[in-house]
Design goal:
The chain is 52% helix and 12% strand. It is an alpha+beta fold. The protein starts with 9 loop residues before the first strand and ends with a helix. Keywords: Coiled coil.
Length: 455
């Protein structure tokens, strides 16, 4: 007697490329790839989009986890990769119905473990390019050769049939009951499909919103870097201008010193002339004329030379001022371009800044892990509480009172003796649902608070 092999749930891994699904393998083969037993040279120096899939015996998808996997220059996967695929598949939320009811879906916008979120990716849900539909069709083709469950209807043994008593033969109209049951079933299926469609649309909106925020953050970071470069150039030009001004002052000082020297020489020559006058008027006139001509020539030459130097410096100074004005205009133009870039579409921004990106991640209760754009770092440092409160859509005082309640959920009301009530309360996990005077009070003090409000 031969033993019949029954189909079971199967774990598989598929690789996505720009053209669709390019590789399928069973989970044991994927483990061998991670252990270094085999390599995949066709994926070398690439970051691949991969999906872990749980398949039932009828070749229908029951769970999916979409994650990234990097390969080195030899086609070996990243040795530090350690995403718990089975754990994420078990704890993930509900996704679209791929034929066997809503699947369990773990992706970037729906991750049950927040610190693994950055290593996951969102499948495309665009009609005609739906990754989930592509995954469903690929599994249905069964290129992995999985055992399939026989859908034939099993007949019921005659001995298991039971005959209703004669007093129940004339029951109410079965056609009416069947119609009512069918209508109820159709209504229930319609509600389930509607809920699944709403879930799918919310997932798509969340994915597109996150991608747009990342693209805007990258654009603002690039604009800030460009502005810093232009400001550095302006500062360099200002420094060069100051150096030229200092050089002009130095040249004017040298000119004044030489003028003093000429004055001293003039006085010395005047004394010589007075001495020569004693020896003869004629010789004195000759020496005086010679002295004046030589002195005027030397002074004129020095004045012309220094005037030329000052004129050259003045021209350079004017050029520096004109260049400074041009650079300031260029900075204003770049700021306008930065604002224009911030309002452009996501695809054009992504093409320009695909290789740039710095991500700052912090954790705050109620807000979870926050990705802070570069331009928000200063605002976050000034007041982290206010930043987290804004992300939770509440005011900072409410967020602080909620945080105190979250850390120690107990009644904050005061007793007649001045002590704090302190009765343990149910914790409110969301700041926006926290109501001061209600969420932080026990039932007795909550009623007192309401009476005071009414009065």
């Amino acid at each position: 007697m031969s033993m019949q092999i029954k189909p079971q749930m199967v774990e598989a891994v598929v690789f996505f490329s720009e053209r669709g699904i390019c590789k399928e393998m069973l989970y044991p083969e994927f483990e061998a790839l991670l252990d270094g037993v085999v390599n995949m040279p066709e994926f070398k120096d690439q970051q691949m989009r991969v999906a872990y899939v749980l398949i039932n015996p009828r070749l229908l998808v029951r769970a999916a986890v979409f994650f990234y996997l990097e390969f080195d220059e030899r086609g070996s996967p990243d040795s530090g990769w350690n995403i718990p695929l089975r754990h994420l598949a078990e704890r993930s939320g509900r996704g679209p119905d791929l034929g066997a009811g809503p699947i369990r879906l773990a992706c970037r916008s729906q991750c049950p473990v927040s610190w693994h979120q950055m290593h996951l990716w969102d499948p495309s849900l665009v009609p005609g390019q739906n990754d989930l539909v592509l995954l469903r069709d690929t599994v249905k083709r069964n290129q992995l050769g999985l055992l399939v469950e026989d859908d034939a209807v099993q007949s019921l043994a005659p001995e298991r049939l039971q005959l209703a008593p004669e007093d129940q033969w004339h029951a109410p109209d079965p056609a009416k009951e069947a119609a009512e049951q069918l209508a109820e079933k159709i209504e229930q299926e319609h509600r389930v499909k509607t809920a699944q469609l709403i879930k799918q649309q919310r997932l798509r909106i969340s994915s597109q919103t996150q991608q747009y925020e990342e693209e805007v953050a990258k654009l603002k970071m690039a604009s800030a870097e460009e502005s810093q470069k232009m400001l550095a150039q302006i500062q360099t030009l200002h420094q060069a201008l100051r150096q030229q001004e200092e050089l002009n002052v130095s040249l004017k000082g040298q000119l004044a010193a030489q003028a003093d020297t000429f004055q001293k020489n003039r006085e010395e020559m005047t004394e010589q002339l007075r001495a020569i006058e004693r020896h003869g008027r004629a010789e004195t006139d000759i020496l005086r004329a010679q002295f004046d001509s030589e002195l005027q020539a030397r002074i004129s030459s020095a004045v012309v030379e220094y005037k030329e130097q000052i004129a050259i410096r003045d021209v350079e100074l004017a050029y520096r001022n004109e260049l400074d004005t041009q650079l300031e205009e260029e900075v204003e133009r770049l700021k306008k371009e930065r604002d224009a870039f911030a309002s452009q579409g996501g695809e054009q921004i992504l093409e320009r800044l695909s290789k740039l990106g710095v991500v700052f991640v912090v954790y705050h209760p109620g807000a979870g892990h926050l990705t802070i754009p570069l331009q928000d770092i200063a605002r976050y440092q000034d007041n982290p509480m206010a930043y987290a409160a804004a992300k939770c859509f509440v005011a900072e005082p409410q967020y602080r009172q909620w945080l105190a309640h979250y850390e120690k959920p107990s009644c904050d009301a005061s007793l007649p003796n001045g002590d704090r009530c302190g009765i343990p309360l149910d914790r409110i996990d969301t700041p926006s649902r926290f109501v001061i005077g209600d969420s932080n009070c026990c039932a007795r003090h909550k009623a007192v608070s309401r009476l005071r409000t009414v009065s």
